[in-house]
Amino acid sequence: MERWKGRVALVTGASVGIGAAVARALVQHGMKVVGCARNVDKIEKLAAECQSAGYSGTLIPYKCDLSNEEEILSMFSAIRTLHQGVDVCINNAGLAHAESLLAGRTEGWRNMIEVNVLALCICTREAYQSMKERHVDDGHIININSMGGHRIVASADEHFYCATKYAVTALTEGLRQELREAKSHIRTTSISPGIVETEFAFRHHNSDPEKAAAAYESIKCLKAEDIASTVTYVLSAPPHVQIGDVQMRPVEQVS
Fold this sequence. Notes:
Layout: E1 8-12, H1 17-28, E2 32-37, H2 41-52, E3 58-63, H3 69-83, E4 88-91, H4 106-133, E5 140-144, H5 159-181, E6 187-193, H6 200-204, H7 209-217, H8 224-236, E7 245-248
Parallel strand pairs: 1-2, 1-4, 2-3, 4-5, 5-6, 6-7
C-alpha cells in the first residue's frame, strides 16, 4: 500500500458498514479519502476518530445523494478543485428494497437501479475521466458487488436486487475490456461478499427487524473489516496483476 500514500480515493456509501470500514482502512494506510453519503454526520465522527488515532491519511466527508447525477458531478468537480482528482474509486454504495417481481413497487425498483447501477456507472466514468486528464495510468476502480450478482437467491424479496448485482458483474468485466482496448493500465475489480453483518439487512427488512436479525444470527457472518482487508489486498497487488473477481462468503453460508 506504500505507493498509495497521499493519493486520493473516493468511497461511496462511507457512513456505515463496509464503506466506513474501507474508508478507515485506506486512511490508516495514508490515503486522502473522500467519503460520501446522503448524511455525513457519521463520516464526520469517523474522520475525527481517524485523526485521534494518528492515522497518516485524512478522511474528507462529502454530502452526496447518489441517485442524483447533478450531485455526483458536483462532487467530482469539488474533488478536482480541492484535491486534483480521483486515483482510486470504491463504488460501495448499494441498497435493497423488498420488492418482488410480481408485486413490487416501481419506485423501489427504480431506486435500486439508480443507486446500484447508474450511480456506479456515473462514478466510474467520472473517475476514469479524472485519471485520464491527469495522465494517471495506475488507478483502480473497485466495485463492491455481492454473491447475489452470481446466483439467484430463492427469495422473492431479493430477485430485483440480484438483477442489479448481476449488472455490476457484467459492468465490471465490460469496463475491464474497455480499459484494455484503450491501452490503459487502470485496473478494475469486483468484490462479491456473501452475508456481512452490517446495517444492510435491517434497512432491507425495515418493517421486519426480527427477520433481519435472524439473517445474522444463523451463522458466523463476514465482518465489514473482512471486506476492507480484501480491498487493501487488491490495491496492494503489483501493478501488472489484474484481480478481476473476488467472491467471498462465510464458511457456513450454504449458497
